[in-house]
Amino acid sequence: MMLSRSTAKAAIGHGGGKSRLIPATSTIHRLKSSGCPVTGPILKKVPTLPFVGSMIPQHSGVPVFTRQRQYKFNSEMRQKFGEFIHFGIPGFGVGLYGHMYTIFDPNEMAKVVRSEGAYPSGVVEKLWQWRRAMLESGSVLVSKKDSSSSDGGSHDYGLFDKGEGWKRHRTFLQTGMLDPVAARGFLPGIVLAAESASSVAPLHSHNVNEYMNYTAFDMFCSFMFGKRLSLWSGYPLLPKMLVLSRQRG
After folding, report:
1. Tens digit of pLDDT for each residue in 92-143?
2. Rounded to an integer, what distance in angstroms lies between the CA atom of residue 137 and that of residue 215?
3. Are the C-beta atoms of residues 9 and 94 closer than 8 Å to each other?
């Protein structure tokens, strides 16, 4: 579970009222020295460099990151650095070092989500390629702001932004998704997509993560567009299906 710096402040800082989540490292040391019990994971800071963040394993000690082994990367990061990590990924993190936070404990993550407030911050705001494509294509999700925001942005990107515009789009979408009357219309398609994908699940035992991504996107398309793409039955499956058919023949 990855957090931007602004979101992670809810986990590190004290926030408003009496709610106090994961204390800063200095606070933890102070509590320990006073004999007070400390709960929650301790923040581990991974070395970072300007422009490249923590992506040079020889300097930071992080595992090698590639698209093909992104699931193993997160698992190895957790094993090496613990449950709560501060490191750098250029393009996703914040600032010159690409600073960001990763927390693996779902119970601690739930505390962060509950403390985000009405306008949470997330990694979707970093998808500048998508935002630029939306702007240049005249997407209806993009609107002109009355005044530039603190980061200099002159447009609101709806679901791909934060603030009031994001809240309005998210509320509209959530209402359409969770309303019982609307759900009766799209749930049968999702169930059928899941049932069809489940029938060939054993054939994808060699790459469960890829299969689950295809299946999840197929269920999403069934809900959003009313069409099943059956991606799980495409190229990744064909070689095994040919082998099975030859064996049975």
Report:
1. 888 899 999 999 999 998 888 888 888 887 778 878 888 889 899 998 889 9
2. 29
3. no
